[in-house]
Amino acid sequence: MKTNLKSKLLPLLTASALAYSFSAFAENHEHHHHQHETTLSAPGLSTPSTDSVFNITDSWTAADGKAFQLSKLGGKPTVVAMVYTSCQYVCPLTVQNIKRIERSLSAAEAGKVNFALFSFDPQRDTPAKLTEFAKLHSITSPSWVLAQGSESAVRKLAVTLGIKYKKVQAGDYEHDATISILDSNGVVKFQADAMNKNINDATDALKALLH
Amino acid sequence: MLVLSSCLFSAAAVSAEDMVLVPESSFTPFFLKRDNASSSSAAATKISAFWLDATPVTNGKFQAFVNKYPDWHKSNIKKIFTDSHYLEHWQNTQGSADTADLDKPVVNVSWFAAEAYCEAQDKRLPTTDEWEYTLTDNDRDKENLQQRIMSWYSVPNKELPAVRANPANGFGVFDLAGVIWEWTADFNSYMAPPDSRNSGDKNLFCGSGSLNASNLGDYAAFMRYSYRESLKGNFTGKNLGFRCAKDAK
Fold it and tell me: Cα A24 to chain center, whole Å?
């Protein structure tokens, strides 16, 4: 195997396949896959469970300009997505799909759920911009929070939710469009492609947490 | 040449606790930048000057961190921050590093643990561009470098050596290749211009990505980007460690 690589003609995709049989790769692949302030709901447990995203303590700024931490989402299940407001296509669709999930709930159920949008874009998504975005999407319910954070807070949340992204030319972001559903303790219970028009699975997962 | 590079190294390494200043430059990432919806280019990315640890973080240094921040002890670490193999090579009853391993690079650490370590030193993880740029060594000895990296990738893992067992590169940085793989801050970046993803077909991604590489001969780079692409923040690996960086400002 090692001598094969001397050939400069080896197609890249073959190199990729080979890569996975190299011991350095193979061993590294022994992974185990698991998985004055704005208040949305009653504060969660003071000590979050050890697999909760509430263990991430970065401070964000909500659209109302107040400080916000993930643990503020405790006490109710939460529908979470990462977006940025200058995004032309994927993010508005993500928001529309989350709103469809919200509409699938009864008024009583919807009152027991948080909806949270975190921005990829620390430079442009000021609280004012987030407020404007909420208005544009007719987000008026107090169950929603839109927040922006530092570059490192954004990176940490994205890594935690398994969301890949990259800042590209002209300040745009390429990113996974993922809807995550957290239980009231901040444990990720469900994830789906936000572009998926069928929201039944997400709605079922959310309703299961309400009963 | 040898004399010159060792001078450079000793001059650089005395500052800032074993960090090396990597000067401002421009760097053409292995995967191309996306200019707009339909085109991408190999235009250079600007790299601002930054400090980089001269060596990977060792078991000894990571032990000192764990002692100071017991939340990161292997018996206390929160599940969301790691898989079940965190520091599994620290096998004594206290869950601490073996004294024979103190100068070896720490491995079996998740991205979250690496990130927390760097933050505790008032540092950060290097970006992928910074790390890759430092590895290129300003194209000094380019051919040899690629060959050395490929021959390392193709041999089975051996017992890890202490850091600084091999010579530093021209920047004065040790052990970027030949010992362990390293976390970067933005390992979870897309490695390629994901035009295909907008059309909703994620399966096209790997194929189109490989065709958009800036240097089709650099298999080693392709493998590193593929490897990073396969990671998640809570993963650990027997050969996966890290080093920290810091803005030069």
Answer: 31
Kindly state the tokens that stand for B62: 């990571």
Q: Do B35 and A169 touch (CB under 8 A)?
A: yes
Half-sphere exposure of B228 (CA within 13 A, CB side): 26
Domain membership of residue A131 as a residue range = 53-210
Angstroms from B81 CA to nearest CA on chain A: 8
- The residue to which tokens 């000590």 are assigned: A47
Give B123-174 pLDDT, tens digit per residue.
Answer: 999 999 999 999 999 888 888 888 888 888 888 777 899 999 999 999 999 9
**A34–B234 CB contact, under 8 Å:** yes
| Residue A93 touches partner B, C-beta closer than 8 Å | no
Which of chain B's residues have a Cβ under 8 Å away from the Cβ of A169?
A: 33-36
Distance from the Cα of A70 to chain B's closest Cα (Å) equals 14
Q: Residue count of chain B, please give it.
A: 249
Chain B residue numbers with beta carbons less than 8 Å from the beta carbon of A27 are 157, 237-239
Instruction: Measure the CA dihedral A19/A23/A26/A30, to 10°.
Output: -160
CB-CB neighbors (< 8 A) of A56 in chain B: 80
Task: Give domain status of residue A112, yes or no.
Answer: yes
pLDDT digits (tens, 9 = 90+) for A61-118: 999 999 999 999 999 999 999 999 998 888 999 999 999 999 999 999 999 999 999 9
Residue A62: which CATH number? 3.40.30.10
Option in B80, B155, B200 nearest A2 (CB): B155
CA A114 to chain centre: 13
The CA distance from B95 to A70, in Å, is 31
CB A120 within 8 A of CB A175: yes
> Given CB atoms, is A26 within the 8 Å cutoff of chain B?
no
Residue at A26 is within a domain: no
Provide the ipTM: 0.83
